[in-house]
Amino acid sequence: MPPRSSPTVRQQRLGAELRKLREASGMPAREAGALLGGNQAQISHLESGRWGISAERVRRLASFYSAGDSALIDALCDMAEERHKGWWEEYRGVLPQGFLDVAELEHHARRILSLQSLTIPGIFQTVDYARTIFGGALPPLPQTELDARVEQRVRRRILFDRATPPPFEGVINEAALRMGYGGRAVVRSQLAYLLEVAEWPSVTIRVLPFTTEEFIGSAQSVLYADGPVPQLDTVQLDSAYGPGFLDAEAQLSKYRAVFQAARRASLSPAASRELIHSIAKEM
């Protein structure tokens, strides 16, 4: 079987976690490959996500490495056994890989935290609002890709159609609520939808008001996704070049602290809804 040419972020993560286990054991890749009946190149392909791996082989490697965290090993086995293709795969070859990776991250998350400085969380954007955001891309997007980006963004919220959707907590800077993207009618409609979303049982929306006296140390859009075990948590950051993904413990710890600070500085959910309603009336 030829190696994957473009492994997904999730496939790369499985390989990276296997590499961490091997490196913690002190075993060279050459030796690990030999224990699997292969060579160093085989381990390299597995650890880069370019080759798939069975749950049985994950457990064999964990045994070779004397890895004792059974919860982590079970979670890695579950990742290895994933064979279904999610709805986002319909956009492969149509949209940049990062769009698919974000949807897959949300799909597997046990909980989602979102911190937004200048826009409404992507998963809750209306069609007109999302079209305005993507319509501002430089250089301008071809119409077919623009349409696909908007469609895929709106489809991400099928996550909340589940019987038990993952809890979602969003902290939104007041500036994002007041930005006039698309004009007053578009913003009014977007804020009305955000108020509707804020009433969903699994969703908590908080506003970071202009009156706060605290500085929250992130001007980026940040999404923090809880994995099945803390070691598999992931941070996703937006940038002009597409989404970036972080998973080192030092990085995860930093962004957990950022979210804790944002919660402390933000309004309660009820007061947040009142402020959103007030801003919508001003539009």
UniProtKB/TrEMBL annotation:
PROSITE patterns (UniProt xref):
HTH_CROC1 (PS50943)
InterPro entries in alphabetical order: Cro/C1-type_HTH (IPR001387), DUF5753 (IPR043917), Lambda_DNA-bd_dom_sf (IPR010982)
Which Pfam families does its entry note? DUF5753, HTH_31
What the entry lists under SUPFAM superfamilies is as follows: lambda repressor-like DNA-binding domains
Where the record annotates domain HTH cro/C1-type, the positions are 18-73
What GO molecular function terms would the record report?
A: DNA binding
Name of the protein: Transcriptional regulator
